[in-house]
Amino acid sequence: MGFFDSEIVQQEAKQLFEDYQSLMGLGSDYGKFDREGKKLFIEQMEAIMDRYRVFMKRFELSEDFMAQMTVEQLRTQLGQFGMTPQQMFEQMNKTLERMKADVERTL
């Protein structure tokens, strides 16, 4: 069975994408959120990033050809911007940390 043939993998990918899309829809109103709303948004974004990091690690560890191709495509796409997957996650974390610091300053 291939990596993408797994019902669990398909369900996790679908749920991760739906959760991310939903959160991004809310994110357009981020500036209108009160302090607690901003904190909740950041926490949810961190949780999605953690899930995405685990999901990508599964791709990396898989010996499945299609999983390896997916990882390689991500590396190639990010490479066009001079970035590695690790740097992408680090940048996301830095952004979330700046958002947290901003929320803490607005007491």
Q: How is this structure best described in words?
A:
The protein has about 110 residues and is mainly α. It has one domain. Helices cover about 80% and strands about 0% of the residues. The longest helix is centred in the middle third of the chain and has 27 residues. The chain starts with 6 loop residues before the first helix and ends with a helix. The mean pLDDT is about 90.
Rg on CA atoms, Å: 16 Å
Question: What is the count of DSSP helices, taking H or I runs of 4+ residues?
Answer: 4
- Pick out the low-confidence regions: none
Helix content range? over 70%
* DSSP strand tally: 0
What is the overall pLDDT average? 92
Percent of residues in beta strands: under 5%
- Helix and strand content put the structural class at mainly alpha
Shape: globular
Q: State the separation between the terminal residues, measured CA to CA.
A: 53 Å
How many discrete domains?
1
Q: What are the salient characteristics of this protein?
A:
107 residues, mainly alpha, 4 helices, 0% strand, globular, DUF1825, DUF1825 domain-containing protein
Quick structural overview:
It comes from Stenomitos frigidus ULC18. This protein has 107 residues and is mainly α.
Q: What is the secondary structure topology, with strand pairs?
A:
Layout lengths: L6 H21 L7 H27 L3 H15 L5 H21 L2
Helix pairs in contact: 1-2, 2-4
